[in-house]
Amino acid sequence: xxxxxxxxxxxxxxxxxxxxxxxxxxxxxxxxxxxxxxxxxxxxxxxxxxxxxxxxxxxxxxxxxxxxxxxxxxxxxxxxxxxxxxxxxxxxxxxxxxxxxxxxxxxxxxxxxxxxxxxxxxxxxxxxxxxxxxxxxxxxxxxxxxxxxxxxxxxxxxxxxxxxxxxxxxxxxxxxxxxxxxxxxxxxxxxxxxxxxxxxxxxxxxxxxxxxxxxxxxxxxxxxxxxxxxxxxxxxxxxxxxxxxxxxxxxxxxxxxxxxxxxxxxxxxxxxxxxxxxxxxxxxxxxxxxxxxxxx
Length: 296
Hints:
Blueprint: E1 4-5, H1 8-11, E2 29-33, H2 41-52, E3 57-63, H3 64-73, E4 78-82, H4 92-103, E5 108-111, H5 119-131, E6 137-139, H6 149-153, E7 160-161, H7 165-172, H8 176-181, H9 183-194, E8 197-200, E9 205-208, E10 214-217, H10 229-242, H11 247-268, H12 276-279, H13 283-295
Parallel strand pairs: 1-10, 2-3, 2-5, 3-4, 5-6, 6-7, 7-8
Antiparallel strand pairs: 8-9, 9-10
Helix pairs in contact: 2-10, 4-5, 7-9, 10-11
């Protein structure tokens, strides 16, 4: 396997824009769409992570039964409660128009945290992508497996997808063993097929552009293999994307920040046992180290 190693030194060659004094609109806005009655916390983890990565405004859209609690848990966010099915999932038919409207002013939209892989998720994701093809997207979890390549390839800019091995296997129609045996090959195949930026998650993560360019990151540690960690990663990526980074650059920065946050928590808490909710809290200080270097 080959690829450019993702390090702090490499990222210093790809600096993020520094927010100037001004309104929160200047730092970008993020919409996080996801969740269900059984997994309401995923959008919380992703939304907070987007703000910690520097986004200025946040909207969270999830099932109506958890909207009030979400508004109290994340008072920084505008929360949209959506109709839900008897199974506690977002009902796509009455919800699609509301989501399309909510996404219109946003600089980045994250779809999928806490959503099941099912027809309802696919219907909602495809409706949004078709109606807002010029939006910058991060597609995670349940939104990945049923993607229509024609809809994705018609988007105005490459979306970022964040599959683990199981999700990648479903997306490509491969066996999970085949994905795990050669994750870079799977990521390149998906990137070319969808014309997307792929973050292939694993003990070693691969970041692949539509043209096949690839970087890899092996830091972070085993502690990041914990429930909710992927939601935090997706939120960090969405926050960087909203700040104006192009999709490949947002993916690189997101993977690095997520991994280094895990390394810091491993040092302060222990190699395992820290929580996904703690990951995004490390991000501002990591970003600060880059700002210090730039000003030195």
